[in-house]
TrEMBL record:
Keyword set, alphabetical order: NADP, Oxidoreductase
Keyword NADP (UniProt): yes
Superkingdom field: Bacteria
CDD domains in alphabetical order: ALDH_SSADH1_GabD1
Domain Aldehyde dehydrogenase: 4-452
Similarity comment: Belongs to the aldehyde dehydrogenase family.
Protein name: NAD-dependent succinate-semialdehyde dehydrogenase
Length: 469
């Protein structure tokens, strides 16, 4: 039996160590999850919805404790950690509100005595989740899945193991069935075996494109449903008629919140040349107002990156992008202090093929690409392999409505920033994955869409020569 350790990224010191599950302990978790899935899935949807509301209340009651734990384990500024807990409660409550109507059988007129479509739970869902939003990533995927009658076995990132176990404890605090959301501490090498286990019906993963390809391959080999929310390199397109003051403020917020460690952060600012100098100047001023420091300090807006290797990887991307010809405007240094801090960074005139433009940059560094016009902006926005979120700034809303249909992404924010919202489906295309979380589409993602045709005692009428396949 091995162990995992959690490290405080602010100091580099160990927080705690946790033993990995033995084979016998894993068997117990899976058995309990399968038993809970049979019982939970048979409950009326209204009862499941009330259970999610209790879970939301439990999260609110432990808001400060949960927020402090997230900040300690992954370095998120404390105000953002509190906001994450609040968003989880909202997500649970919205799924509970939407579920009864969204999951109700839908009648279809086929000429039979009765025809309808049911939305039946699949059973046990393996949820493989990342560290950057240690609660919201789980709830974003899990609220809909649990409302639909499924249960989650949670394989969380090692560095937020405390957050993972806290989510499991909340299930008991909310008087929900044991096994409804069951954390497991296991090595990555054991995940393929869990996916293949006959008690597991499906898998949902939020993580890197590399991890997504591996999980999709493993799930496909055993013909199990998978949902993948993967990386992104979101474009923040600013056209010549945009409100530049507002665009700059939102660009700084989108790029540098959560220490830049967000799949849907604005990573590439694609700016029409005629307004680029003014926009970039405003962005540099905004970055100068950011406060780097201890994430437990209420004044801090940028804390440490979550792990040393992530910080070092960002430093490499910045240096290689500079070497390719980009202009460093601000930042670009590892800070000489304990912990894994990196200066908020802005790179201008980032060339094609350089890491700042071609790779996902997962940290506090913004790449600026200057373009001659809107057509060129769309081409740059779509040049990436990713297709998660996008942002378009223009004062001409009719023009915006036309242009958004040409952007290759799962979400576009016009005169705003991409953010997940429980009222809207969330997910991407291309190398950003497939499937949707949240809203109606999320509630119907991890279900068996079950068609039922009821005939009278004499059976259906003769087919009359129609094809029967």
């Amino acid at each position: 039996m091995g162990e995992v350790r959690t490290i405080d990224p602010t100091t580099g010191e160990e927080l705690a160590s946790y033993p990995t599950a033995t084979d016998e302990e894993l068997e117990t978790v899976l058995d309990r999850a399968a038993d809970t899935a049979r019982r939970w899935g048979q409950l009326p949807v209204e009862e499941r919805a009330e259970g999610l509301r209790r879970l939301a209340r439990a999260m609110r009651e432990r808001r400060e404790e949960l927020a402090q734990l997230a900040t300690a384990e992954m370095g998120k500024p404390i105000a953002e950690s509190r906001a994450e807990v609040d968003k989880c409660a909202w997500g649970l409550e919205h799924a509970a509100e939407l579920a009864p109507a969204a999951l109700a059988p839908e009648p279809v007129d086929t000429g039979a005595l009765e025809s309808y479509v049911r939305f039946d739970p699949l059973g046990v869902v393996l949820a493989i989740m990342p560290w950057n939003f240690p609660y919201w990533q789980v709830i974003r995927a899990g609220a809909s899945a649990m409302a639909a009658g499924n249960v989650l076995v949670l394989k969380h990132a090692d560095n937020v193991t405390g957050c993972s176990l806290a989510l499991g404890e909340l299930v008991a605090a909310a008087d929900l069935p044991p096994g409804l959301l069951a954390p497991i501490v296991v090595e990555v090498e054991r995940v393929a075996g869990i996916i293949a286990d006959p008690r597991v019906a499906a898998v949902t993963l939020t993580g890197s494109t590399r991890a997504g390809r591996a999980v999709a391959s493993q799930a496909g080999a055993v013909l199990k449903k998978s949902v993948l929310e993967l990386g992104g390199s979101d474009a923040f397109v600013v056209l010549e008629d945009a409100d530049l003051a507002a665009a700059a403020d939102w660009l700084v917020r989108s790029r540098f919140q959560n220490v830049g460690q967000s799949c849907i952060a604005a990573k590439r600012a694609v700016v029409v040349e005629s307004v680029a100098d003014e926009l970039v100047g405003r962005v540099v001023e905004g970055v100068g107002r950011l406060v780097v420091g201890d994430p437990r300090d209420e004044k801090t807006t940028v804390g440490p990156m979550a792990r040393r290797d992530l910080r070092d990887g960002l430093a490499r991307q910045v240096e290689e992008t500079k070497a390719a010809g980009a202009e460093l405007l601000v930042g670009g240094r590892v800070l000489d202090r304990p912990g894994w801090f990196y200066e908020p960074t802005v790179l201008d005139r980032v060339p094609p093929g350089s890491p700042g433009r071609a790779e996902e940059v997962f940290g506090p560094a913004l790449s600026v690409v200057r373009v001659p016009d809107a057509e060129a902006a769309l081409a740059v926005a779509n040049e990436t392999e990713y297709g998660l979120g996008s942002n378009l700034w223009t004062s001409d809303l009719e023009r915006a409505r036309t242009l958004v249909g040409r952007i290759q992404a799962g979400h576009t924010a016009v005169n705003g920033m991409t953010a997940s919202d429980p009222r809207l489906p969330f997910g991407g295309i291309k190398s950003s994955g497939y499937g949707r979380e949240l809203a109606l589409f999320g509630l119907r993602e991890l279900v068996n869409v079950h068609s039922v045709v009821v005939n009278g005692p004499a059976g259906p009428p003769p087919p009359g020569g129609a094809a029967t396949e």
